Amino acid sequence: MIYIFDESLGKRLPKILSILDQKTQALCDGFAEPGEADTDWMARLDPAAHVLVTSDGKIRTRAYERDVWKERGVTVICLDATLHGKMQILERTWRVLKAWLKVRETVEKSPGGYWYGLRASGELERRE
């Protein structure tokens, strides 16, 4: 699986993870064009090859994005407000790094298409 980080997480976190984990790619690394609509690049996600990592929880509630996500059947890891919010970038990066193996193990053992919330505690919660 390749973990695609969307722009909501900035450039630093995906860059750091891509150095440590070759299966990580940021949208800015060529998967999407700058300013490209989310629904356009999301439609190119392959559920057998990609996992979307985001902090944009509204993808799950905005009908036009939710429909593309569900139709594609792609797994989503969403950093929830406890992890993304106002936390300093170093703290957020450290917490994501600590949880990353658990994220990978969970995704690789599960069928695709689920939405997981990643909390600051490192807890990974499957949501419908």
What is the element layout, followed by pairings?
Blueprint: E1 2-5, H1 12-20, E2 24-26, H2 38-42, E3 50-54, H3 63-72, E4 75-79, H4 89-109, E5 115-118, E6 124-127
Parallel strand pairs: 1-2, 1-3, 3-4, 4-5
Antiparallel strand pairs: 5-6
Notes on the protein architecture:
This protein is of the alpha/beta class and 128 residues long. It has one domain: 3-Layer(aba) Sandwich (Rossmann fold). It is 35% helix and 20% strand. The chain has four helices and six strands. It has helices at 12-20, 38-42, 63-72, 89-109; strands at residues 2-5, 24-26, 50-54, 75-79, 115-118, 124-127. The protein has a six-stranded mixed sheet with strand order 2-1-3-4-5-6. The chain is globular.
Characterize this entry briefly.
By secondary structure, the protein is of the alpha/beta class. The chain is built from four helices and six strands; from the N terminus they run E-H-E-H-E-H-E-H-E-E.
Instruction: Count the domains.
Output: 1
What is the H-and-E element order?
EHEHEHEHEE
Regarding quaternary structure, what we see is single chain
Stretches where pLDDT is under 50 for at least 5 consecutive residues are none
The CATH architecture: 3-Layer(aba) Sandwich
- Order of strands, main sheet, comes to 2-1-3-4-5-6
Which class best fits the helix and strand makeup?
alpha/beta
The CATH topology: Rossmann fold
Largest sheet: 6 strands, mixed
Helix-residue proportion: 25-40%
